[in-house]
Specification:
With 137 residues, this protein is of the alpha/beta class. It contains four helices and five strands, in the order E-E-E-H-E-H-E-H-H. The chain has a five-stranded mixed sheet with strand order 3-2-1-4-5, sandwiched between helices.
């Protein structure tokens, strides 16, 4: 079963996909939101078809104490919309510290500032999906 992992942001959405057995996560890059839900939906429908996605995991940005703030509510709303439109199960997954971990990885790789911006979302989505896969879902 292939699973799509998403790191939802205001302007971009980091993308990752599992291998067909649902064991590993590979980054796909990012999608720049269009400001038009119909266009966004067409993009995600295309990903679902191309990769034969059967489930989607959306990062849920919880506070360090585990409580939810406004960002979590926005991610929940996006996940609900995706589930209704794509008719696929969508799971919300704790993404605490994934952006911080992604930036640490990029620092270790000595990535340029321009490269960091482009790769951060993809790495964050990969970390969210890998964590979900590692949990045995």
């Amino acid at each position: 079963m292939r699973i799509l992992g998403l790191d939802y942001g205001d302007k971009t959405i980091g993308l990752a996909v599992s291998d067909p057995l649902g064991v590993t996560a590979q980054g796909l890059g990012f999608y720049r939101r269009q400001g038009d839900r119909r266009k966004d939906l067409l993009y995600f429908k295309g990903l679902v078809e191309e990769y034969r996605i059967e489930r989607i995991v959306v990062g849920l940005p919880l506070r360090l104490d585990g409580s939810e703030g406004s960002r979590a509510a926005i991610s929940r709303e996006f996940a609900t919309w995706l589930e209704q439109e794509l008719k696929l199960p969508v799971v919300l997954w704790d993404e605490r510290l994934t952006t911080k971990e992604a930036l640490r990885i990029l620092r270790e790789q000595k990535a340029s500032p321009r490269s960091k911006k482009a790769r951060k979302d993809r790495i964050s989505a990969s970390l969210i999906l890998a964590s979900y896969l590692d949990s045995g879902n």
